[in-house]
Amino acid sequence: MSLGTPAGAGWSSEAPGGRGRLSRSDSRRLRLSILGVIGLALLATLVVRLWYLQVVTSEQFVAQATGNIIRTVPEPAPRGRIFDVQGRELVGNRIVNVVTMDAFILRDQIGTAQRQRLALELARQLSRSGLLTKSTELTEAMADPAYGPFDRIPLAVGVSDSIKVFLAERNEEFPGVEVVRRARRVYPYGELAAHVLGYVDTITAEELEARRNHPKRYGSVDEIGKSGVELAFEDVLRGTPGWREIEVDNVGNVVRERGFRAPQPGTDVVLTIDADLQRLVEEELRRGLLEARERQDESVEEAFVTFAAPAGAAVVLDPRNGNVLAMASHPGYDPRLFIGGISAEEFETFVHPASHAPLNNRAIQGVYAPASTMKPITSYAALSTGLLGPDGFLGITQTTEDPGYHVLDDCIGECEFENPDRAPNGPVDLRMAITVSSDVYFYKLAEQFSRRAGYDEDQIQQTARDFGFGKTTGIALPFEHAGVVPDAEIKRARHDANPDAFPDPDWRTGDTINISIGQGDLGVTPLQLANSFAVFASGGRIYLPNVAVGTVDPLSGEWVNQIRPRLASRVYLPADLYAPILDGMRGATTLRTDERIGTAQGAFSGFPHAQWPVAGKTGTAEVLGKADSAVFVGFGPLPQPRYLVTVLLEESGFGGEAAAPVVRRILEAVALDRIPEASAETPREDLAAAAPSEGS
Fold first, then answer.
1. Residue-level pLDDT at 180
2. In what order do the strands lie in the sheet with 254-261?
């Protein structure tokens, strides 16, 4: 009989192998213990994480939080001003209201739909205020990727104070929009000297990259000189930007200002240009082209056609020191159009072929055949080498017959070269050949250079280079062209590069003949031509042309740097070489007999030669497929000229008929002290001081 066990009593029995079985209560306690350990582990992990965040990385997160609310905002500096030689302001600054958008708020807090609504309403308000604005223009500006995350994107320039107040009172309706005061370029004389002054526009990504480490710090919204003096003197004219350090809340509202450094305005530049003379030269250049458009082009026989005369250039130098007193190019442009930026469509109008490249400064970028204005240089080549002289081909006063044409000796192919219209000039010596512009006389000289023993075939080209052709003049203006002085090496290189366009690789006597009268492939800029004639006007000195006399501190008014005359070289020019050339050029403006007439005598008839003697040379440049271009260079008063004027009119006919009258009117106004005063187009009271003060 087995013993019974009381009900509910706990006991453990031995299983096979000696193991016991846990009771239900022990099992529960074990599970609770395990859960407790897991909970303690999770708690420990959380504590460690909190300790890491609050102790180990606390400084890092504090720095990040501070960086989110402290912003350094650049304060643009006004550019230096540009003055004429008399101290008149040609380019200044005016403080204007500019509507801007905070790029950080725009990209972080404003969605696409809200951006479009904001642009539409802002455009509506700006247009109502009188500043016509399209909403598409605003959305395009806001979407421009060129602006950085902390830039203020300019949306509209020159808004009224009432708009400034209106927008300031509606921050919630126009988030990120703020009207700030900025200096903008102003041109008191309008388009005057636009090609010399140049223009400014927003910096491009390439320009910004090139100036990444510039000491004056450029930003993506800054303006930079694009041409003319604005570009050439960019480092001088640009001011040093300042900055503001501000604290903002999480929606971009300014809490307080933590620091400020005032911007420093750029240095002023004083030019050699005289505004009164500049205005006169521009007006006479324009007048000369208009007059040419009214004259018949008699080279067209089958119909009555007037000259196209689309463009031209003029330069006035002081041959005593190389200073540029005036420089004009037509057609011109208005630099005010670039204030605040210009659209791609507007810029396209400037580069369209029908506009005749108004942004180009033809005085330094246009390359033209000098035509017969080359003849004084060819004369010097012959005189200085003895080709003209007692032991040369001809004596200086010895005449040779000009029947209107010249046939080369021992020639095959194109052997005959003519005067214009095959007109004969009879017996001519050097002086008369220059006065009446006898092509035949210079054909004969060129042939002798090619064939006479002891003379260099390229002597005329060597002399042209001595007078400054084939290289830039060194003027402090961008994009100057070096021109072209062709020779045997250049001709062969062109043939090798493109034999279809240049089938003849060899230099021939005919090429030298073309060079002697300023034709063929010889190309010069109007400034190069003017500077070459300065050799005759200055007794042999060649200066690097100066466009500025110095720079001035905008605050003290003291000179920072004065630019002195820069003598580049000298050409040997004794009286026996100089006199016959000068006499020939004087005769061009004065000689009139029953048999002979100087090529510019008609243009200078009635000029006060007795009180203000002048000399000059005409040129008529042949252009393939177009009408001739007119050229004239004149200088005076002799014997110590102070003014030298070069005028070139494209597709305008003979130099004596088209260009010489322009030079005559300019020199006559100078001689009689009748240069009209250039009036400013912008009222002086509209020009505000540009240097911002603290808190502005």
1. 86
2. 70-75, 242-248, 254-261
| pLDDT tens-digit readout, 160-194 | 888 888 888 888 888 889 888 888 899 999 999 99
Give every CB contact of residue 498 below 8 A, 6+ residues apart in sequence.
Answer: none
Q: DSSP letters of 261-283?
A: E--BPPPEEEES--HHHHHHHHH
User: Following CA atoms 89, 90, 95, 97 in sequence, which dihedral angle do they give, to the nearest 10 degrees?
Assistant: 160
The residue ranking higher by pLDDT, 202 or 324, is: 324
Segment 555-578, tens digit of pLDDT: 999 999 999 999 999 999 999 999
3-state SS, one letter per residue, for 134-145: CHHHHHHHHCCC
In this structure, are residues 318 and 642 in contact, taking their beta carbons and an 8 Å threshold? yes
Could you give the CA distance from residue 126 to residue 160 in angstroms, rounded to a whole number?
9
Question: Among 26-35, 399-408, 436-445, whose mean pLDDT is lowest?
Answer: 26-35
Hey, which residues does 629 pair with through a beta bridge? Answer: 621
Please name the residue that has the structure tokens 């570009």.
231
User: What angle, rounded to 10 degrees, do the helices at 375-385 and 509-516 form?
Assistant: 120
Pairing of strands 268-271, 82-83: parallel
Pairwise CA distance, residues 512 & 492, whole Å: 15
What's the number of CA atoms in the CB half-sphere (13 Å) around residue 421? Answer: 7
The domain over range 275-350+359-671 is classified in CATH as 3.40.710.10: yes
CATH of 96-184, one of 1.20.58, 3.30.70, 1.10.890, 3.30.1390: 3.30.1390
Mean pLDDT of the 26-45 span: 71
Ranges of each domain in the chain? 96-184, 275-350+359-671
Q: How much of the chain is in helix, strand and coil states, percent to nearest 5?
A: 35, 20, 45
Task: Pick the range with the lowest mean pLDDT from 320-324, 335-339, 576-580.
Answer: 335-339
Cα diameter, the chain: 174
Region of 517 (left: φ > 0; alpha: ψ -120 to 50; beta: rest) is alpha
